[in-house]
Design goal:
Layout (H helix, E strand, L loop, with lengths): L1 E6 L6 E6 L2 E7 L1 H4 L9 H10 L9 E4 L7 H9 L5 H15 L1 H8 L8 E4 L2 H10 L6 E11 L2 E9 L2 E9 L4 H11 L8 H7 L8 H7 E3 L5 E3 L13 E2 L6 E2 L5 H7 L11 H29 L3 E5 L6 H4 L2 H4 L4 E4 L8 H14 L16 H10 L1 H6 L3 E4 L2 H13 L4 E4 L13 E5 L6 H10 L8 E5 L3 H4 L12 E3 L17 E3 L1 E3 L5 H14 L3 E6 L10 H10 L4 E4 L2 E4 L2
Parallel strand pairs: 1-4, 4-5, 6-13, 13-14, 16-23, 18-21
Antiparallel strand pairs: 1-2, 2-3, 6-7, 7-8, 9-10, 11-12, 15-24, 16-17, 17-22, 18-22, 19-20, 23-24
Helix pairs in contact: 6-14, 7-11, 17-20
The protein binds fe (ii) ion.
Length: 578
Amino acid sequence: MNIVGINAYHGDSSACLIKDGVVVAAVEEERFTRIKHWAGLPLKAIVYCLEEGGLKATDIDCFSVNINPNASIAKKIGYVLTGGIALESLVKKVKDREKKVNLLEDLKRGLNLENHDVEIEFVDHHIAHLYSSLITTSHEETLFACIDGFGDFKSAIWGFSRGFEIEIDKTIYFPHSLGIFYQAVTQFIGFNSYGDEYKVMGLAPYGRYNYPEEMAELVSVNEEGEFRLDTSYFTHTTKDFKYTWKGGKPDVSSLYSKRMLDLMGENRSEKEELTQRHKDIAHSAQKKYEEVFLGIVNSLYKKYGASHLCLSGGCAMNSVANGKVRENTKIKSVTIQPAAGDAGGSVGAAYYTYVKSANKKLLVDTPYLGPRFTMEQIETLLSTHKSELIADLCEIELLMDDQLIKSVVSGLLEGKVVGWFQGRMEWGPRALGNRSILADPRRTDMKDILNSKIKRRESFRPFAPSILREHVSDWFDQDDDVPYMMKVYKIRESKRADIPAVTHVDGTGRLQTVSKEMNEKYYKLIQAFYEKTSVPILLNTSFNENEPIVCTPKQALDCFLRTKMDILVLENYIVRRP
Ligand SMILES: [Fe+2]
């Protein structure tokens, strides 16, 4: 059976393919359209998945989608009758629903399947989130929490699952949402692009907990973790609120109301300087999120007693909060799939459909589910651009793995910035050693070098460490697997000065643990760096320059030529600037 999973007409549109019980491919549409968080129909992603699986569109048995237009209907009607939502908003929701119902026609048209019989299954949004995390754990029994902005009129479910028996303990319905709370504060601080929440997370450690009462006004919570927003501080129930994706770019109108300004003072505009007040607001919002989130986890543990937890939904991207679970609850291990947000819903929906028909467990234990390219393709690319590279005084060499690693390490030791491109592209928003920019974490000036040469991002944002798995406990205060960079842990105090470029202001790092089994070439590279420096860590940031992560060798080369990157590795080719 060939199932194509889809997240469509929503931010981080994506597709995946389960072919005969194997997740063959998964990819976000933004990597092809080159528009961050692209929303719309993921046709290019579907075409790629089919190619990877050696299939034609006519081989698709079923589309599985991570929304269900018929979900929560009674709740929706009830909410409208109580006057909780503006009529205009309701009309828009009905139109959105129609669009979702027409999805099969759109897919058939886009893939030339008009005369072909193919089924479509609509999976409740949060069930798709849940299945997207269940597919990445081998635990038979697990607690789960799926928390996001909204989907199918809900913003969270949590509970317990044993095999495929799922017990939902609590559901949070519209208009209450932790995702909306965090997004509104993100906008309030002047980060207005879709998906900017991680900036608040990065800014928070610079602030103090100076707004506890204000945060408690915005979000209240009971003993069982059920939370509520005071909607008078928000706009998402009013007619003014808009979520659009013109040309594929998702755009969310202002989520905070005038009343929030009365509560917390002036909002910040995008260009305005960041002051201590903004940092304190970021800190307070992060703290509030953690308090509610950890409350949910603790209440789950109290009820079911299981010590493993699966997290999913956009809020599961809050790696700082995720990193606090083991320290603040009785949970021993936490699984979060690489695309924890809505992109991951495509895998979750497809897995749900698969389980229904096959009743079998699948396990995905790799993030490398995207496009790959051959040496021939890279050779052709480099020869096409040879004159440009020579004019730039670049040297091009083809090396065996060992020589390549040696050469890259000596570049890193000289303070060079390396674009590292190999194998299949990562699934999810984190670069995990196949589309990464790498640098020496020991240098105090490396953050500035990276920002001046390539990234040009806000100076408060930290860079991440990739660390050999067996060295984690020597460098971090938790000994844990973090293969997809989804948790932030404290770096041991004695080690912080050794790796200043990846140590955040509060002494933490958003680590990626690297094992030989998961990524042998990347593992060997870090190991070679370790042999020279006694530091088993590299600075790893995504291979891009204010755009979606590069997918093709051509995009990697363009990024190299556009920026001041020193070294570019394309599989076994190495290109060096003088
Ligand atoms: Fe979601």
